[in-house]
């Protein structure tokens, strides 16, 4: 592990990403601590290069930076900003649900990052609690762009191939379709998990989870956390909506979090549509 790679000394193993192993490393010349993601599956080389190209083009306070990409001894390496702190998933497992104030603050930061991506024609496609770190002073940092792509870039999967993390996937992703609206569904899943400590679409089998997702069939979050405000419940409803066209955009999420009164009025039409989505064959 201590054998330098392009001037980087690996100091400890951090975990596994979508396509490779991630290590903490130290660069002697710049005295910078970084994260290095190393490709573990040669057949995924094209997707790994795509991840580097997508993330290297981004500059946003809530998206981890890419410093460089290189190939050394046939080993593809992506050098990233090292973020100290737990992922949201790790935090929930250790400490349980977040307070509404903290959850809203984190969601506002993540939604801002998603709005930035969507305005540049980029769909993340794998937003989840395990891909967001909570850094110092409660700053959210979005990680892992292994499944992201530009809207006009070539597809790296076969048509109809399901891609993503099942529990956070939008209904349309089960048909191989994804868009910015799919990322917004994942925002709803993330908010639900932060406020309740549970996934909205749990199940014992993948087919059961898929069925529940495609009907937006989830337990009302207030039943799991009675202290939640109506605003949180309505925001989740606006995001966990079967039709992509009716979901809140990332920009609308940011605005709603800044101005909660936008969520004051019950959406009776939306509630009827959600009821119909759940009961229709």
TrEMBL record:
Pfam family, one: Pkinase
CDD domains referenced in this protein's UniProt entry, alphabetically: STKc_PknB_like
Alphabetically ordered keywords of this record: ATP-binding, Kinase, Nucleotide-binding, Serine/threonine-protein kinase, Transferase
GO molecular function: ATP binding; protein serine/threonine kinase activity
Domain Protein kinase: 8-262
Gene3D superfamilies named among the record's database cross-references: Transferase(Phosphotransferase) domain 1
Binding positions for ATP per the UniProt entry: 37
Name this protein carries in UniProt: Serine/threonine protein kinase
Species name: Larkinella rosea
């Amino acid at each position: 592990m201590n054998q330098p790679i392009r001037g980087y000394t690996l100091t400890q193993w951090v975990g596994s990403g979508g396509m490779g192993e991630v290590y903490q490393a130290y660069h002697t010349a710049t005295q910078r601590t970084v994260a290095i993601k190393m490709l573990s599956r040669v057949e995924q080389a094209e997707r790994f290069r795509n991840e580097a190209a997508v993330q290297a083009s981004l500059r946003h306070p809530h998206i981890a930076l890419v410093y460089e990409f290189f190939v050394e001894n046939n080993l593809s390496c992506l050098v990233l900003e090292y973020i100290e702190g737990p992922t949201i998933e790790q935090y929930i497992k250790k400490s349980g649900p977040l307070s509404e104030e903290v959850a809203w603050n984190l969601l506002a930061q993540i939604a801002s990052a998603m709005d930035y991506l969507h305005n540049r024609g980029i769909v993340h496609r794998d937003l989840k609690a395990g891909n967001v770190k909570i850094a110092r002073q409660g700053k959210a940092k979005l990680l892992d762009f292994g499944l992201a792509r530009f809207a006009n870039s070539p597809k790296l999967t076969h048509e109809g191939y399901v891609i993503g993390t099942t529990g956070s996937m939008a209904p349309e992703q089960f048909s191989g379709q994804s868009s910015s609206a799919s990322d917004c569904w994942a925002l709803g899943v993330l908010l639900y998990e932060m406020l309740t400590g549970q996934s909205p679409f749990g199940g014992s089998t993948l087919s059961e989870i898929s069925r529940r997702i495609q009907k937006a069939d989830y337990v009302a979050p207030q039943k799991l956390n009675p202290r939640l405000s109506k605003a949180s419940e309505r925001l989740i409803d606006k995001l966990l909506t079967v039709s992509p066209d009716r979901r809140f955009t990332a920009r609308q999420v940011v605005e709603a979090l800044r101005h909660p009164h936008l969520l004051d009025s019950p959406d009776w039409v939306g509630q009827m549509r959600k009821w119909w989505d759940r009961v229709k064959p």
